[in-house]
Amino acid sequence: MKKTFILLLAIWLCGVCGVQAAQLNKVAAVVNGQVITMFDLQKTALPELGRARLNPNNPAQAKEVDKVFRKVLDMMIMDILLGQEAKRLKISVSPSEVDNEIAKMMKARNLTKQQFEAQLAQQKISIDEIRQNFEKSLLRQKIMGMEVGRKVVVTPAEIKAYYEAHKDNLYDRGGLHMGVLVYAPNVNAKSIAAQIKSGKLSFEEAAAKYSIAPNKDKGGDMGPVEWDRLNPEWEGRLIKMKPGDVTDIFDLQGRKAQVHLFRPGGDNAEKQLTLEQATPQIDAILRQPKAMERFEDYTSQLRNKAVIDIRL
């Protein structure tokens, strides 16, 4: 049903292309001289409209459609600003870096190249779109590292205070595994999550029955977690968890998802870390919110300095 709805949206976009080409060639925004056309905006907003089950031709949904367009336009503007900033800073992302990210994605999902390409085809996503998304993400990370990360300071006093307050939950992360449950669009994720939380349903049972992730047959088990390869968002989520914890529902590429963190070997005793051993872990915990706050300030400054003409 959802695929049919998205297909109808795509047909709508193609139809509009033929009938209202002049309208689509209109400018939605200009960002430091770089133009975003209505066609670009509507094409980029198409997946978001599909997920929200909004029909741009339905007058009753006009306000909701406009909200989606403005949200997507805001993201497109920021992508342009960060791209322009990357050029100023002489930051670039090589094709091999993107290849590495795609290889890591396939490894994490236990997919061969053929299986990965088949999944993309099924979801009507081109490899070029995937590459562009990774390039944007890597550029963002590099800019954060250069302009934000180096300005974030976590003091020894802050680390010690955190350790004293949380040392009972600081443990050796060696051998940690993670499981991922990505809910099918036609199930009640909130109800299932409540059953997992209450113990009526195990995470593994829920993943096997309701997940659309590749490892559903293994109870969602994605294998050992390679902490040094996690992006900041995932590390920030997982680093605060104890073995056995399950996250609340969060958004994962437009789908509702949950993560289960567990340790192989069942009830093996956990090794509590000393202050020295825990310092890198605590530093990461305290650094992330500071970095995100700095990044928000940084992007706000980019907007304030930019010449942005929105014409919606």
Give a quick account of the main beta sheet: strands, pairing sense, barrel closure.
4 strands, antiparallel
Radius of gyration: 22 Å
CATH level-two architecture of the domain at 171-263: Roll
- In the predicted model, the low-confidence regions spanning at least 5 consecutive residues are 1-12, 14-21, 264-269
Sketch the topology as an H/E string, one letter per element: HHEEHHHHHHEHHEHEEHE
* Strand arrangement across the biggest beta sheet: 4-3-6-5
Question: Any overview of this molecule?
Answer:
With 312 residues, the protein is α+β, with helices and mostly antiparallel strands. The protein is 56% helix and 11% strand. A four-stranded antiparallel beta sheet has the order 4-3-6-5, covered by helices on one side. The protein has a three-stranded antiparallel beta sheet with strand order 2-1-7. The protein is globular, with a radius of gyration of 22 Å.
Quick tags:
single chain; 312 residues; alpha+beta; Chitinase A, domain 3; four-stranded antiparallel sheet; three-stranded antiparallel sheet; 56% helix; globular; disordered N terminus; PrsA_foldase; Peptidylprolyl isomerase; isomerase; Trigger_fact/SurA_dom_sf
